[in-house]
Design brief:
By secondary structure, this protein is of the alpha/beta class. The protein is 24% helix and 20% strand.
Length: 320
C-alpha cells in the first residue's frame, strides 16, 4: 500500500473524532480542517438518544441514553433530598413515589434526577452540579448544611419544597428558612383525612401557573395552615389557594375546615420573589395510619402535574 493511502486511512478516524466531539474538521471542498468549526444546532432528544447537526456541514453528533437523559444534553440537573425509610410512613411513601415519577419525567422532559437521604449533599462542591434542589419530606438540621443551602439560593440556585418540608412548630431553629425564605412561620393547623380539593390560581403571571386553568383539582392531600399571613408579605407571590367552593376541607371530625364566615384563606403554593423557589403543600397521599394501606398517589392529576413540572422548570431555568 502506498504511503499516501496509509496516511489517509490514519487521518480519517481522527477527523471523524473531531467532528463527533465538536472540534474542527473540513467540510467544504478545498478547505483545510482549521478553516471549519462546527456551528452546532440545538440538541434533538428523545428518551433513547440525543443528536444534533452542524448548520454548516450537516455533520451529526449522536449519543445513546440508558436509564435517563445523559449529562451531555440534559437541560438541567435536580438533586432531591428526603427519607424513604423510617419517620412518617406517608411522608416516606411520597419520596418513594417521587423516585419513580421524576426519573421518568426527566427522560421525557430532558433533566436528570438524583435522590439522596444524606443532607450532607448540601455542600458547595456538590451543589455546583445542580440547577435545582428538591426537599421531598425533610430539611437540613446541621449548621453546615443549612449555610450551604442559603449560599446556594443566594447565588441563584433553584428549589422546590413539598408538604412537610415547611413543617415546624419552633421556627426559631432556622429563622431564615421559615420566616424569610418560606415566609410561612409555624405550622398552625391541618385537615384530615387527605382529600382532593379544588385549587384556585391566584395569578397566571408566574411561569409555574402559566399553563393551567383558573381552577383545577388536586390529588388527595393533607392540607396545612400557617401562623403567618402570606398576603401581608410583599416578598411572597401566592400561586395557588383552596378555592372557596371546595369547603369543607377534610372529612374527619375535629380536623375539618369549614370557612363558614367566608373570610378564611389558605394558600397552598407560593414563590418568594427574592429567590428561584416554589413551595407547594402537596405531598401526602391518602394512607391511614392504622394500617398504612395506600389509597392514592400524588402525581395523578393532569393539571397539577403540569403545575409541578412548570414550577420545577421555572426555578431550574429562571431565564427561560
Amino acid at each position: 500500500m502506498k504511503r499516501a493511502s496509509i496516511l489517509f486511512l490514519m487521518l480519517v478516524p481522527m477527523i471523524a473524532g473531531l467532528a463527533s466531539c465538536g472540534g474542527t474538521t473540513s467540510a467544504t471542498p478545498g478547505a483545510s480542517a482549521a478553516e471549519h468549526v462546527h456551528d452546532w444546532g440545538p440538541w434533538i432528544r428523545d428518551v433513547d438518544a440525543h443528536w444534533r447537526y452542524c448548520k454548516t456541514c450537516h455533520q451529526d453528533e449522536y449519543g445513546e441514553h440508558e436509564d435517563r437523559v445523559c449529562e451531555t444534553c440534559a437541560d438541567f440537573h435536580v438533586l432531591a433530598l428526603g427519607f424513604i425509610e423510617g419517620g412518617d410512613g406517608a411522608h416516606a411513601d411520597f419520596a418513594k413515589e417521587c423516585n419513580e415519577y421524576f426519573p421518568q419525567l426527566g427522560k421525557e422532559e430532558g433533566f436528570t434526577y438524583d435522590f439522596s437521604s444524606d443532607f450532607e449533599k448540601l455542600n458547595d462542591e456538590n451543589l455546583a452540579h445542580y440547577e435545582a434542589v428538591m426537599f421531598l419530606n425533610n430539611y437540613p438540621y446541621s449548621q453546615a448544611e443549612r449555610q450551604a443551602f442559603e449560599r446556594y439560593m443566594d447565588r441563584g440556585g433553584g428549589w422546590i419544597g413539598y408538604h412537610v418540608s415547611a413543617f415546624t412548630m419552633e421556627n426559631k431553629t432556622w429563622d431564615w428558612y421559615f420566616n424569610s425564605f418560606l415566609g410561612s412561620g409555624d405550622f398552625r393547623t391541618n385537615t384530615w383525612n387527605p382529600t382532593k380539593e379544588l385549587l384556585k390560581v391566584e395569578s397566571h403571571n408566574h411561569p409555574a401557573v402559566a399553563h393551567v386553568p383558573d381552577t383545577f383539582m388536586s390529588s388527595p392531600n393533607e392540607w396545612y395552615g400557617w401562623s403567618n399571613d402570606l398576603r401581608e408579605n410583599e416578598d411572597i407571590e401566592i400561586l395557588l389557594s383552596l378555592d372557596d367552593s371546595t369547603f369543607p376541607v377534610g372529612d374527619r371530625q375535629g380536623e375539618i375546615w369549614y370557612n363558614e364566615s367566608g373570610e378564611d384563606y389558605f394558600p397552598v403554593a407560593w414563590a418568594n420573589r427574592n429567590y428561584n423557589m416554589v413551595y407547594m403543600n402537596m405531598g401526602h397521599n391518602l394512607m391511614p395510619y392504622n394500617d398504612f394501606e395506600k389509597h392514592s398517589k400524588t402525581f395523578t392529576e393532569e393539571h397539577m402535574n403540569r403545575f409541578v413540572l412548570d414550577a420545577l422548570k421555572s426555578v431550574a431555568l429562571p431565564e427561560e
